[in-house]
Specification:
The chain is α+β, with helices and mostly antiparallel strands. It has helices spanning 199-218, 227-246, 258-282, 284-314; strands at 2-5, 15-18, 21-26, 29-49, 54-65, 74-76, 86-96, 99-111, 123-132, 137-140, 156-172, 181-196. Strands 3, 4, 5, 7, 8 and 10 form a six-stranded mixed β-sheet that branches. A four-stranded antiparallel β-sheet has the order 6-9-12-11, with no helix packed on it. Strand 11 (156-172) and strand 12 form a beta hairpin. Helix 2 (227-246) runs antiparallel to helix 3. The protein starts with a strand and ends in a 10-residue tail after the last helix.
Length: 324
């Protein structure tokens, strides 16, 4: 049972909403349930942290429900337990027929599942998960035409918004014989995919690493008589790279991020250059045979690193999803 409204100003397609009464399959029985509809008008989103998997949001929540107190007909499922904050202020309350309409200001901290692997070029999906508090009501997802995208998130770019129903299967063993019975739970998720604005990160990391690589590459053109000078240059470059790595902002989860891959590549370059200096002292003939191909391979490896990072960023493995 669906209502069709006039096309919205943003989209050419009709707006589809559930009728206020629905036939619903509850534990194998067909029952008639009422519909609870809601919409969210976001004021601000801040403190998006992939280290803690949390973000802060302040928004207006409009609810239409059969309950006299509409806010009691829904619950938020992903409120943060690490940094708990949940404030609700009622702004308006009215009644039309047997339906109640309420408007609330919500200030809360929410949790989400971060994907830190592509940091600092990562994309994250933050969401607000709601479900009905009563099995006799069904929660209406927000139509795509009414999703709010008119707000800013500091340090992030908003790519798109999405709303849908996320269903999960749970196994319940509430019996003396501990027999497991499957149970399906539903949650309406309203979320936004964000892309990190990494211009400052590129400046803080890219420019110093470029000059350190040039310094390491320069040692390949020094003669065997200048091995002490080359060793000093490489030591400076290597220690500077370590200091730069530990001064860089990195997520805490123990995963190999893109920034770790870049620094690991630089350490390999410095290590190879150091080995060439040692070869020049103990194996001068081997050094002469390897130094010329190495002068070509090292710059080519940078191109390979760029292609690897590009494929890593495009991989669906590290793409966020509304269901994760």
């Amino acid at each position: 049972l669906v209502n069709l409204l006039l096309p919205s100003k943003k989209k050419n397609s009709a707006v589809k909403t559930l009728f206020e009464k629905q036939v619903y399959d509850l534990d194998g029985k067909e029952v008639i349930v009422s519909t609870t509809s809601f919409n969210i008008d976001v004021e601000r989103v801040s403190n998006v942290s992939i280290e803690e998997g949390t973000f802060s949001a302040e928004f207006y929540l409009d609810i239409t429900s059969a309950s006299e107190n509409p806010i009691d007909s829904v619950k938020f499922n992903n409120l943060s337990s690490m940094n708990p904050l949940h404030e609700v202020r009622q702004l308006e309350l009215s009644k039309i027929g047997d339906r109640y309409m309420g408007r609330y200001m919500i200030t809360s901290n929410f949790s989400f599942s971060p994907i830190p692997n592509n940091y600092p070029f990562d994309e994250q999906f933050i969401y607000i998960g709601l479900s009905s508090t009563n099995s006799d009501t069904k929660l209406q997802p927000v139509p795509v035409q009414y999703l709010d995208e008119d707000f800013k998130v500091n340090g992030w770019s908003l790519l798109f918004s999405r709303c849908g129903i996320n269903r999960k299967k749970h196994w319940v063993a509430m019996h003396d014989n501990l027999q497991r019975i499957p149970r399906i739970s539903e949650e309406v998720r309203l979320g936004w995919e964000l892309k990190r604005q990494n211009s400052m990160t590129l400046l803080k990391i890219g420019i110093p690493l470029f000059f350190l690589f040039v310094l390491a590459y320069y040692t390949l053109y020094l003669g065997t008589d200048d091995s002490a000078t080359a060793l000093g240059y490489l030591t400076t470059a290597f220690l500077s790279g370590i200091a730069l790595y530990f001064s860089t902002e990195r997520p805490q989860p123990l995963s190999m991020t893109t920034i770790d891959v870049i620094f690991a590549f630089f350490y390999i370059i410095s290590g190879v250059s150091l080995l060439m200096i040692l070869f020049s002292q103990f194996f001068p003939e081997l050094y002469t045979a390897l130094i010329y191909p190495l002068r070509i391979l090292l710059p080519a490896s940078i191109i390979g690193l760029g292609l690897f990072i590009r494929s890593r960023l495009a991989s669906r493995t590290f793409k966020p999803s509304i269901t994760k």
